[in-house]
Amino acid sequence: MSGTNNARSFQFAHLLAAGAFGALGAFFTCYLSKRAQPVRPPIRVLITGAAGQIGYALSSLVGHGELLGKSQRVILHLLDVETATEPLNGLKLELIDSALPLLTDVIATTNPTEACTGVSIAIMVGGFPRKAHMERKDIMAMNGSIYSKHAYALEKYACKGCKVVVVANPANTNAVILSQCAPSIPRKNITCLTRLDHNRALGQVAAKLNIPVNVVKNVTIWGNHSSTQYPDVNHGCANGITIRNAIRDDNWLDNEFVSIVQQRGAAIIKARNLSSALSAASSVCDHIRDWVLGTPPGHWVSMGVISDGSYGVPEGLCYSFPVTCKDGDWNIVQGLDIDARSRQKMDDTARELEEERRLAQDYLQSL
Ligand SMILES: NC(=O)c1ccc[n+]([C@@H]2O[C@H](COP(=O)([O-])OP(=O)(O)OC[C@H]3O[C@@H](n4cnc5c(N)ncnc54)[C@H](O)[C@@H]3O)[C@@H](O)[C@H]2O)c1
Ligand SMILES: *[C@@H]1O[C@H](CO)[C@@H](O)[C@H](O)[C@H]1NC(C)=O
Ligand SMILES: *[C@@H]1O[C@H](CO)[C@@H](O)[C@H](O)[C@H]1NC(C)=O
Ligand SMILES: *[C@@H]1O[C@H](CO)[C@@H](O)[C@H](O)[C@H]1NC(C)=O
Ligand SMILES: *[C@@H]1O[C@H](CO)[C@@H](O)[C@H](O)[C@H]1NC(C)=O
Ligand SMILES: *[C@@H]1O[C@H](CO)[C@@H](O)[C@H](O)[C@H]1NC(C)=O
To answer: Is 287 a residue of the active site?
Structure first.
């Protein structure tokens, strides 16, 4: 009680001393900002390849506040190619019909300049599907040409400090291409999605132990977003004890678990005759939300980031690491013990990425 009285008399004295109206104004501004959330300007979010199946699920999640929180309004910039104009416009109509209070506006366009202008978050889902007769070199050139063009538009028209996540495969190498073609965007601002793999690993551990997924912590996906990725539980815990002690089946963890997570994408395709879309969209929201708002205390997450040489991963590769995020920045978790088995698997997936980077380098030099 006396605290409240002191505060009141302080406010009163303050009013007298500082002149009634100015101080009253300041008091109300301060009072109101503590009560109601100040109305923040909307943030522009780009989704490329928006007419595709990930874009369909993702744009709705973004409109529901899953990307930047329930008090942040957004303007969606949806980009796709000319041949996808009709479904792209259809998506816009459906978003309007969803009557989402956080969704201030929707811009559906096939013009990369318009799509990139003023965006603070760029989610790169656009990609060219692989056809049976294509050689890897040709596909790299097609993917490369998309990512070099988009890099140029982002560099020129996006907000300074824009955060980029590449989803389209080969996600790690597309991120490297984007970064090299947009040298003025800080390397730390360009990432690729491995959160889906991370979430798959959490899901498998939780299912095995029959516990809620949020009490499973600190699993890691190392490397490429492909079947050579290494899902690592050695530093993880479940319900406060190590995952290895909780599961007590090293054979399952070292073999079946690893291959379930590595092959999960293929299992989804087999079941749906379509690749994962809902879970991919959901993990994009997790990736960006944790990056912008911070990882929950006591947890790390996996993100594909451009290597600074940590854990002996060649510098400049876009490689999935364990990271924590705070104040809009991410940092690789340092100092984890890596045993010989893990080392081997981490090196195998790094070699795959180096090979792919050489292919990308050849393409970039041919420009
Ligand atoms: N990293 C991951 O975890 C992860 C998970 C799932 C899927 N993916 C990848 O995400 C990508 C998209 O998947 P999807 O299922 O939505 O595919 P999709 O084929 O349904 O959609 C891709 C969209 O990209 C568009 N596109 C092609 N070139 C473009 C360009 N130059 N500019 C703008 N848009 C362009 C296409 O028109 C299409 O609408 C694929 O490459 C897929 O392999 C990655
Ligand atoms: C190019 O992109 C497509 C689809 O986005 C992907 O399936 C293919 O594997 C990519 N190319 C290479 C060289 O991996
Ligand atoms: C991205 O870029 C801006 C400056 O251009 C910076 O403020 C921001 O922290 C950067 N880093 C990350 C990791 O997002
Ligand atoms: C790395 O992973 C991507 C995504 O799954 C895949 O397209 C690519 O072929 C992989 N790289 C190599 C060299 O196998
Ligand atoms: C699976 O998808 C392919 C390519 O989109 C299609 O040609 C085929 O008919 C589909 N198969 C089934 C069983 O639906
Ligand atoms: C999980 O990671 C976070 C972030 O690095 C750390 O603070 C926490 O101690 C870790 N938990 C365990 C059980 O190792």
So the answer is: no
Q: Do 46 and 116 form a contact (C-beta atoms < 8 A)?
A: yes
Helix (H, G, I), strand (E, B) or coil at 331: strand
Protein residue whose Cα sits closest to atom 5 of ligand 4? 226
Question: Is 337 flagged in the annotation as binding?
Answer: no
- What are the pLDDT digits (tens) for 236-280? 999 999 999 999 999 999 999 999 999 999 999 999 999 999 999
Both structure tokens of 108? 């559906």
DSSP letter for each residue of 173-191: HHHHHHHHH-TTS-GGGEE
Neighbouring residues of 27: CB distance < 8 A, sequence distance ≥ 6 = 11, 15
Q: Is 50 annotated as a binding residue?
A: yes
Burial class of residue 302 in the structure, from the number of CB atoms within 10 Å of its CB (0-12 exposed, 13-18 middle, 19+ buried): buried
> d(Cα 105, Cα 108) in Å, to the nearest integer?
10
Q: What is the pTM of this model?
A: 0.89
Contact 217 CB / ligand 6 (< 6 Å) = yes
Give the integer Cα–Cα distance in Å for 158 and 165: 14
Atom 14, ligand 2: residue with shortest CA distance: 170
Q: What angle do CA 93, 271, 262 make, to 5 degrees?
A: 105
